[in-house]
Amino acid sequence: ADLIVVADCVPFAYADVHRDFIRGRVVVVGCPKLDDGRAYLAKLTEIFRHNTLSGLTVAHMEVPCCSGLIALVRQALAQSGAEVALQTVMIGIDGKRR
After folding, report:
1. How far apart are CA 72 and CA 8, in angstroms?
2. Which 3 state secondary structure label does DSSP give 26?
3. Helices 37-50 and 67-80 sit at what angle, rounded to 10 degrees?
4. C-alpha distances in angstroms, 34 versus 25, 37, 38, 65?
5. What is the rounded average pLDDT of the residues 70-95?
6. Which of 18, 31, 36, 61 is buried most, with the most CB atoms less than 10 Å from its CB?
7. What mean pLDDT value characterizes the chain?
């Protein structure tokens, strides 16, 4: 599967999120600031450990708290032992892709 981890603000800020990011991918959504990061880390680690991914993308906002989502994904990858290239996509607060 091609997995995308999407910060939960992205679909509200970026109108073409379905067309540009979600179509054809498995989607995981969350907020590193407001949700339990330890639970995300555990779940992502298990997802990476037990599945073969053809791609991995993190779509996040440009705000500082969203960098936590990238850190969680990187840490889960390291803990899982999975080897997959990580791509990141930043969405500005103005709704434009950076």
Report:
1. 15
2. strand
3. 40
4. 24, 9, 12, 9
5. 97
6. 61
7. 96
* Residue located via tokens 């379905």: 18
Run of H or E residues at 80:
helix 67-80
CB 37 within 8 A of CB 7: no
Instruction: Give yes or no for a contact between 36 and 88, defined as CB atoms under 8 angstroms apart.
Output: no
Q: What share of the chain is helix, strand, coil (3-state, %, to 5)?
A: 40, 25, 35
Residue in this structure with the two tokens 């779940």, named with its chain if needed: 43
The tokens describing 17, both together, are 């999120």
The token duo for 24 is 């054809």
pTM, two decimal places: 0.94
Based on DSSP, count helices (H) and strands (E) in the chain, helices before strands: 4, 4
